[in-house]
Write the structure tokens for this entry.
Amino acid sequence: MSGHGLIFNFKDNYISISNGKNTGACYAEGELLVFIDDTSRFNCDFLQLYWDWYQKGYFAQAFYTYYLWGVPHPKFFSIKTDNRYVEEIEKEGLLIHNHGSWFHGYSSVSLNAFLEVNGFDELYDGCKSLEDADLGLRLESKGYKFVLDKNLYIEEGGHWNIEYNPPKPEFKINPPLVDLWASGQKPWKANYCALRPEDIEFIKKTSLEKYGFKVDENNLDWQIWTNNCPIFNLAEMRKEYLKSKYTKLEIGK
């Protein structure tokens, strides 16, 4: 899946989501990136609606109904927020907002903006989830605007009926990572520098006090994660990928 960096593959078959998506962006040739989860069904004008909002200056995000064993989940909206936002969306059909934390698996972003913030933070591959919220927060900090559009609608099938259940690492550091960014201690540009000692202490303290999870410093996975922070320039890597791609095409003629 990946052609760069260190994959935090602590367990067999563990998926490095951020690494994989960043690699995909290296090969992307379009202007707008749209992230769509697997096992999803949507209308034929789905991508057009993303593009239309992009032309108006917004990165659109979709709603979805989640199906478990063929039955719709009772929670229709994909965005976890309070009722006043839900009521506004039900009334108006859309909500222009600046909540980057709502960025999720059915969101869009321009390729230029994605490269500006250096893509997904691959530190989030040490665990699972919240890599998209982190990206949204960093995009928000650069002044980009988002919109929730009820017309952007997806039906997603649950994953439990697929014979695949990736094991997770023995430590949970993604929620404290988001808190680290929100505290102002982490730069808006991902994969830019190593974790500082004070960053590591913040993660350990927040993990225990806020999420009830005590980090075992002797855990080999934890040591690998803290000592091997991914550092790269995604835009420069993309140039190299595309150069290599077209060179191969020329040779193959």
Remarks:
- DSSP finds nine helices and seven strands in the chain.
- Strands lie at 32-34, 40-42, 59-68, 71-72, 94-97, 108-110, 146-157.
- The chain has one domain: 17-251.
- The first strand starts at residue 32 and ends at 34.
